[in-house]
């Protein structure tokens, strides 16, 4: 183990000592009880099993067979989740074959950020995570299950399911993925058409044709955004069956891996003699959280996880912050180039070695904790062997990966990485604290110093771009986009015009208290600025023409304004009409309590603390 890995883990453990101890005490209290059907009253049991087939009722009550709960994020609006439609039947059949019973405990909402991008619905996106966590709790609160299978993939869904499950930390849990869609149009070609559209050089018909060639079938979108970063992190945390993240939805292996997930849940349920329980609250410890952070950095993953995994850790009584990410980033090499920090898609990443290769390299370099309580093996080393084929008996056969990546333009060893440091950087200064994803940004763009142009809506910025007002070196400051203001939407509508300006040779950067997520690209963007403008953050003091310095080398984010003037300068306030617009319509009224009570981005944007 490297000194940095040990130091960061030890610091997190010390910081979290009291909260983690309290969490484990609660876990022990609930984990030491008799099984649900035995401690409940007869009327409760009757309600719980009323809809089960007669033979399953007999198994649960008389034979006391293991009973699994399924929490599903199925809907057929999300391409990634559409394959889950058939999973309950497959899971029931496999459980029956293994002598167990299953009930779908409940469903959780699952929205597609790709659909709501740039629209009012995106203002519910971040808060949907905690809504999913609460929905998971509602499903599991029937409290009759020996273990749970969690069906979810995309952006807020996995963190929400994980947060909800960790509030049932005594319960063994296995996440069940469904895999990515097949490769469509290249990401480079897609980005080019978007920029041409932003310049008015192609029309809506050509843009729609391009987008439809990129997003064209069942499965996860193939760029390395938040959804696919989720899958990488779950592998690194040992919460999947090994190597199951990026197998296609309709591959023969996929059904075999889903059946294996059922067997895995039973094996860790504590109901199989000689096999100890692995409750999720013990699996997700400080080492497990650090492994997820390292995997994110080593693959140039989604910046959303500097919010989500802070919240996930909090759900397990573990306290992390952006300084922990930043210190690890200085020591963790960048091993992967997957769009947007490269040209490959996630299918090429998988073909080159995928999560198993990354985990093996990091373990061998002493940059991950091997001795963790993974659901799919005795240690994290089990996750370096990949599914290869389905055996005659229907089981999954695994094999070791080749010693080298099959494509060193996509994956490289820890001894010869793309970069000696990870893909994320902490920025701080008189504008607050922010993060930047540098893995996709050209090195000559890591430092930008230019006059500010301040906006409070995406639409105002786009109007200025279309009017030619931004044809210069510029730092676009977009404020009042934090969780208190409007739910902290992603701001991808800004990526094409900013890319156009950068392509013309201008020095361009974005500074915002909003999000850019897993698709943060080639334009330097200081995002998640905390404290946010509406909560009294200094971003509210910036004026047009202030010189802003974003320095991803030294970690600075400053307004070059005289200190006395800066201290005396009043903070701008949000236009009441904009505030009213953010609060009403398309369900936004229902989330007013979350906007009021949410913690800062660096504190995980939690609404439940």
TrEMBL record:
<feature type="domain" description="Dihydroxy-acid/6-phosphogluconate dehydratase N-terminal">
    <location>
        <begin position="66"/>
        <end position="381"/>
    </location>
</feature>
<dbReference type="Pfam" id="PF24877">
    <property type="entry name" value="ILV_EDD_C"/>
</dbReference>
<dbReference type="InterPro" id="IPR000581">
    <property type="entry name" value="ILV_EDD_N"/>
</dbReference>
<dbReference type="GO" id="GO:0004456">
    <property type="term" value="F:phosphogluconate dehydratase activity"/>
</dbReference>
<feature type="domain" description="Dihydroxy-acid/6-phosphogluconate dehydratase C-terminal">
    <location>
        <begin position="410"/>
        <end position="605"/>
    </location>
</feature>
<feature type="binding site">
    <location>
        <position position="154"/>
    </location>
    <ligand>
        <name>[4Fe-4S] cluster</name>
    </ligand>
</feature>
<protein>
    <recommendedName>
        <fullName>Phosphogluconate dehydratase</fullName>
        <ecNumber>4.2.1.12</ecNumber>
    </recommendedName>
</protein>
<keyword id="KW-0456">Lyase</keyword>
<dbReference type="InterPro" id="IPR004786">
    <property type="entry name" value="6-phosphgluc_deHydtase"/>
</dbReference>
<dbReference type="Pfam" id="PF00920">
    <property type="entry name" value="ILVD_EDD_N"/>
</dbReference>
<dbReference type="InterPro" id="IPR056740">
    <property type="entry name" value="ILV_EDD_C"/>
</dbReference>
<keyword id="KW-0408">Iron</keyword>
<feature type="binding site">
    <location>
        <position position="221"/>
    </location>
    <ligand>
        <name>[4Fe-4S] cluster</name>
    </ligand>
</feature>
<keyword id="KW-0119">Carbohydrate metabolism</keyword>
<dbReference type="InterPro" id="IPR037237">
    <property type="entry name" value="IlvD/EDD_N"/>
</dbReference>
<comment type="pathway">
    <text>Carbohydrate metabolism; Entner-Doudoroff pathway.</text>
</comment>
<dbReference type="InterPro" id="IPR020558">
    <property type="entry name" value="DiOHA_6PGluconate_deHydtase_CS"/>
</dbReference>
<keyword id="KW-0479">Metal-binding</keyword>
<keyword id="KW-0004">4Fe-4S</keyword>
<keyword id="KW-0411">Iron-sulfur</keyword>
<comment type="similarity">
    <text>Belongs to the IlvD/Edd family.</text>
</comment>
<keyword id="KW-0311">Gluconate utilization</keyword>
<dbReference type="InterPro" id="IPR042096">
    <property type="entry name" value="Dihydro-acid_dehy_C"/>
</dbReference>
<comment type="function">
    <text>Catalyzes the dehydration of 6-phospho-D-gluconate to 2-dehydro-3-deoxy-6-phospho-D-gluconate.</text>
</comment>
